């Protein structure tokens, strides 16, 4: 699976990338929402994993909404230290899997499965 990872924190991005690659996924990593949009325009990923808080004029939520408007079947995992899964579903991205930070490898893999399962119905 081709995964677009949009994360500006190198320590988190390196861990997520390593876990995904070990699971056999191809990962393209960018550090802001604008680069995420540009990358997804060039090649639509099989999944989007994005931090909600990103540098620049656009946050991860706005970027994910734009990408999902273009490709409604795109599985999305949103990461943040600012929410927990029981209290919030981002408006417009109710199908997204939420991954509260900090997280363990198992939680990351479970979020990927949830995102795929929701889209596949």
Spell out the key features of this protein:
121 residues, alpha/beta, five-stranded parallel β-sheet, 4 helices, 5 strands, 41% helix, 20% strand
Main beta sheet strand tally, sense and closure: 5 strands, parallel
Strand line-up across the major sheet: 2-1-3-4-5
Q: Kindly, what is the distance between the CA atoms of the first and last residues, rounded to a whole number of angstroms?
A: 18 Å
Count of alpha/pi helices:
4
From the alpha carbons, calculate the radius of gyration and give it in angstroms: 13 Å
User: Into which percent range does the helicity of residues fall?
Assistant: 40-55%
| Low-pLDDT residue intervals, each spanning 5 or more residues | none
Overall shape: globular
Secondary-structure-derived class:
alpha/beta
Strand content: 15-25%
Q: Write down the secondary-structure element order.
A: EHEHEHEEH
Summarize model confidence as the mean pLDDT: 90
Number of strands: 5
Overview of the molecule:
This protein has 121 residues and is an alpha/beta fold. It has four helices and five strands. It has a five-stranded parallel sheet with strand order 2-1-3-4-5, with helices on both faces. The chain is globular, with a radius of gyration of 13 Å. The mean pLDDT is 90.
């Amino acid at each position: 699976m081709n995964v677009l990872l949009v994360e500006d924190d190198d320590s988190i991005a390196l861990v997520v990338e390593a876990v995904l690659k070990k699971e056999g996924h191809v990962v393209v990593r960018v550090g802001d929402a604008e680069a995420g949009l540009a990358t997804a325009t060039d090649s639509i990923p099989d999944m989007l994993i994005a931090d909600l808080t990103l540098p620049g004029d656009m946050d991860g939520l706005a970027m994910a909404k734009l990408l999902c408007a273009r490709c409604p079947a795109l599985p999305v995992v949103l990461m943040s230290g600012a929410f927990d899964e029981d209290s919030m579903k981002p408006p417009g991205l109710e199908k997204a899997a939420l991954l509260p930070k900090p997280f363990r490898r198992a939680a990351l893999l479970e979020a990927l499965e949830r995102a795929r399962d929701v889209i596949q119905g």
